Amino acid sequence: MVIEDQAAPLLQMQGIVKHFPGAKALDGVDLDVLPGEVHCLLGQNGAGKSTLIKVLAGAHQPTAGTIRLHGEEIRIAHPVAALEHGIATMYQELDVVDGLTVAENIYLGHELASAGFTQRRAVAARTRALMQRLGHPEIGPHREVGTLSAAGKQIVSMARALSRDARVIVMDEPSAVLDSGEVDNLFRVVDELTAQGIAIIYISHRLEEIRRIGDRITVIKDGVTVSRNLDVATTPTADLIKLMTGKSVEHAFPDRPGVPGDAETRLEVSGLSLAGVFHDVSLRVRAGEIVGLAGLVGSGRSEILETIYGARRSSSGTVTLDGVTLRPGSVSGAVGAGIGLAPEERKSQGLVLDEPVYRNITLSSFARIARAGWLDETAEKAAAAEQAAALDLRPPDVNRAIRTLSGGNQQKAMLARWLVHGCKVLLLDEPTRGVDVGARSEIYALVRRLADAGTAVLVVSSEIPEVLGLADRVLVVSDGQVVREGPADSISEHDVLDMVMEGSVA
Can you list the alpha helix ranges (DSSP code H) found in 174-300? Predict the structure, then answer.
């Protein structure tokens, strides 16, 4: 159901076109946003959402089209102009400066000064007030941002937007690094903002969030608006998926074929501890099995994967692959033995963004591809192209810089890396973060195919339905300890939430 505008739009973007060399990213996008509403912008990875908000933020100049604010046409020549017009953007990829304090990040570019001197006390006081408003008074103004978790950095990014007294705030996947309690807090802040007449443009691939927080929806596909001003409450999910993908996605999760009872244990973790983070974690993953780790952000899930991978040195315990104990704290040893990791922060931790797709895919397999000590670029490209075709990487050009791919296709490239390497154990940390519903189904199917071929998969996700739907067996982690283990189909989402919130061993 389409809702006709009840009031004059606060923001209008009409016929927005954006050309890049050799590509047309936007080909006529329309967006109307009312004061005090949460307007949800949906579309697959690569649909043009990021380009559209960069046009609104002044980072890109449109090739054609108009932007109106309060009915008057405006030109947003650069990011500072957007802020001057009261338009603030929170990007999916966190844009904080790790070496600066919380207060310095929040007021970067609009410092409070008198006679040329920064008013440090006033900045600190305002920062404390913003953090109190956001429900995180424990994040002090003088703390270095680099010491914060990804969720903490997201809070700082939100505070920066609020510090600008913005009338329009764009939130690009704001919940991607937040746990369920922090998402509730985010929605509380959004409710407060919209009650003050502030308009929110909310981008998320989590359709359940759209239902909770949104008012209207605009869907874009291939750089074009395919539907606008849809009522969140009355538009069926199946319709939204079809608008985004052009097809119906009937089954998000592939069937579980079941792991044979005589399947050999491929990965065994015994009494693994990392001082101050997690304690006495033991688990086994058999060949062909997908095991999920469910828990809140900060529960130690990601650190468990990183320690198994050798990126962190354990304080005690062992990691064994096919009966051979690995050396603690050695990534090269883990990779050489056959362990691969697709990290949560793929852009900062997993990909070399300015390198081509083929180099990112072959990054862990140079020793196999090299000839007489020299890297064979032709063989690199051939191996990468084979996997790109098998995974339906879009676009299939392995020579382009990987930063130009959408989030879903970057994740496919990460998985392709370990397919080329032929890993025995695949560690996946938030495998569908920032990935649209269509690409999610493709990634789920790929992970299941890898398991069916004998790979042992250990997956971490903040989305409990994802863990329960994808995994064969689930371990629930709370406060650095495994509090329950069992078949995925024997544990409910309610059970998991109870355990991670209470932290009690079942």
Answer: 180-195, 207-213, 237-245
